[in-house]
Structures are given as structure tokens and as C-alpha cells.
Amino acid sequence: MAQTDRIEDFTRNAQARAEALAEGSGPLAALRAAGRDAFAAAELPGRKTESWKYSRVGALLEEGLLDRPDPGADPVAVADFPGLDADRMLLVDGVPRGLPKPGEGVVLRRLAELAELEAADLGALAPAQERPFVALNAALAEDGVLLHVGRGVRVERPLELVLAQGAGTAPRGAHPRILVVLEPGAELALLERQLGAGAVFTNAVIEVHVKEGARLDHVRLGLDAGDGRWLTALDVRVDRDGRYGLHQALVGSRFRRNEIRIRMAGAGAEATVGAATLTRDRTHLDTQMSLEHEVPHCTSDQRFRSIAGERSRTVLNGRIHIHPQAQKTAAEFNTRNLLLSTDAEIDAKPELEIYADDVKCAHGATVGRLDPTSLFYLRSRGLGETEARTMLSFAFLGSIVDAFPLEAVGSAVRAELETAFARPAEETP
Q: Checking CA distances to 299, which of 10, 375, 411, 425 falls within 20 to 30 Å?
């Protein structure tokens, strides 16, 4: 079937499924209605869509990926994170399956239970207009989670957000929706884990509002390869003197794409982004990063380190946009990439768009290979080929992983990445 025919079938099926959902009332129903309208007006990305140049949408159009999951299905195995004492929010195929009892000043609620006032930011932080998959998430969201931290509340224990596939093997689609709001002066560490390697299209939207003087450390892990189709939109607003840190460790899968938009909306806001990624075999990983400096006196620092082996592909498009009124901005974007095979591909594209004249900005990208002299030195000291390559490669990623704010997470991530790297290559469809 031609690509245009597949897109038409997918669009028609998605609209029919959205119309079949119960109307209901409240913020979730309003979100669905807005999503249906936005999806009907949008066009799915095609071969000429610049931001999808290296991510073929065909992987998301396959038969069954719009089917509803079994609401009673068990999740894939969700082991406790080693060495981490955290409260867990579990979503299985997009639906909450267990929320912890929050401490004082923290609200955890299912979106289906919310009143209008509680969900004021729902849909506002991640607008669906001209974003077909964000609109699709809104139209098909069956439930989700609101995490609200009150003014001045410092949450002592980290919160763990687990987006897990169900254990069933049938293809299906899941549309998790998460809203995180930190009131002025609040502090939180959030660990997001994406679990599952089955043929599931997980189309997640996460909205984050860091208000005046608040601080959020957000650690995101996607360490399952396999046949999963993971598409995540993360939209963040940082208000005056707020601090947001995003720390990622990701491996490629059949299709994995992260669309990240961070708005610096208040003077004195700070954003830090660090990512360590690994793709192997024929896996795919695409990161579309947009950082909007809208006001003066804000700071951002972005650092990406990527390794690609065999016939895998890593894509990184990093855009910094300095608006005309955003004087006294300090912004930096840096990506370093390591190719382990002549058949692997890394497409790194930093962008710097400046409309203010009193700023300090820098961006850069490098792509290289392992230093043969260093490799020879380690081999001459008795290390095997795999051990030597692993050591050099993870020295390359170490600066990112070592900066993770949760020490137990950094140690576990390093071990998981090394295991994924050291295993023999295998052909992935």
C-alpha cells in the first residue's frame, strides 16, 4: 500500500476511534474534544516534512497500532530501581494503575477525576495545533495523571513515573497524558521510566510547569530496545527564577522519538539538559529539541553524547531561539557523537536563531570514531576487543551519566548501558 493510502487509513481510523470514546464532562472531556478538532485540521508528517526527514512515519502506521489495549492486562515486569527509595506512579498502556499516597502539600490525581480548576494547565502547555500526534494523544487519552506540588513544598523522596506496556503481545496504541505542576518555591526529583519492548505505539504527552523559584530535576530513562514505537512530546514552561534539569539515558528501538520544547518564560529561569544515548543493530532514536528564550536574563546549557553502532541511526536536531526581548541571555548547545560502524548514521544539526544583540550563545557538533591509538594501548594492556571498546565508549558518555542528580540512578544506568553495549549485535527488523 502506498504511503499516502496508509496515512489516509490511519487518519480515518484514528478519527473513528476518537468519536467512539464517551463524551463525559470535565477537563479530560474538554481535552479530547479539542484534540479531535486539532487532529481533523492537521496533516500527518510526510516525506517532505523537514522535522521528520530522518524519522519515517510509516513505523507508526502499521496495522493494529491504533487498537485499544486490554484494560485488565498485567504490566510488563516492573522491578524496583536498585538503590532508590521512591514513590511510584504506574501507568500501563497509558492508564493509571496505582498512585501512591502523597505527602503533605502534594496532590496525585487521575485526570478523569479532576475538576476544571485543578487542571488549569492541561492542554495549555502542549498545544495541539499543527502537531498531529499531540492532537492524537489528546483525542484518544482515556486517562492520565496530575502531579501537583504545593507552594514551598520540598518533596523529600523522589517520585517515580513508570510508563509501562502491558504484557500482551498484540499490537496496540497507548496515549499517556501527564501534567506536572510545581507551585512557587516547590522542589521535586522525578524519575521517568519507559518500559517495554513489544509492538506497542506509545504516544505520550508530558506537560510541565515550573513556577516562580521552583526546582524540578527530571530524569528520563528509556533503556528497552526491541519492537516498541515510543513517541514522546515533553513541553516545559519555566517561570521567573525557576530551575529545570532534564537528564536522559536512552537506547534506540524500532522507533523512538522525543520532541522536547522548553520555554524560558520568566527572568532568571535556568534550564539544563544532558543526554547519553546508544543505538545498535537497526534501531532508531530521534531527538527534536527546541529551547525558547522568551525573556531577558535566562540561562540554558544543553549537552548530548551519542554512540551509534552496526546499522542504527541517531538523529538530533537542537534549536535555540533567542526572542527579540531576551537580552542578557546565556545559552549553549553542544553535541558529541561516536560512530562505531561505517554503516551506522548520526545526523546532528544544531541551530541557533538570535534576534537580540546582548547575548552570549554558542553551539557545536562533532562526529568521530574511537581513537585507534587508545584502543591499541588498552589491548596491549591485556583487555579484549569488547572490553577495550566498552571502556573507551563509556568514558565518552561518563560526563553525562555522572551528572545525574540521583546517584543510584547514575550507577544503575551506567551498568545497563554497558550491558547493552557489550552484548553481541543482532539484526532487528
A: 411
> d(Cα 246, Cα 208) in Å, to the nearest integer?
11
Helix (H) or strand (E) holding 413: helix 407-422
**How much is the CA Rg of the chain, to the nearest whole Å?**
21
**Residue 270's closest CA among 321, 354, 212?**
212
> Which DSSP category does 405 fall into?
S
Rounded to the nearest 5 percent, the helix, strand and coil shares of the chain are 25, 40, 40
The residue to which cell 496532590 is assigned? 107
Strands 106-110 and 145-149: antiparallel
The pLDDT tens digits for 188-247 are 999 999 999 999 999 999 999 999 999 999 999 999 999 999 999 999 999 999 999 999
Q: What is the pTM of this model?
A: 0.94
d(Cα 422, Cα 390) in Å, to the nearest integer? 7
- Give one DSSP letter per residue of 95-107, joined into a string: EE-------TTEE
The beta strands (E) that lie in 75-120 are given as: 87-92, 95-96, 106-110
What contacts 2, CB < 8 A, 6 or more positions away?
A: none
CA dihedral (38, 254, 351, 360) positive or negative: positive
Cα dist. 364→16, 276, 385 in Å? 45, 16, 31
Q: At residue 14, what is the residue type?
A: A
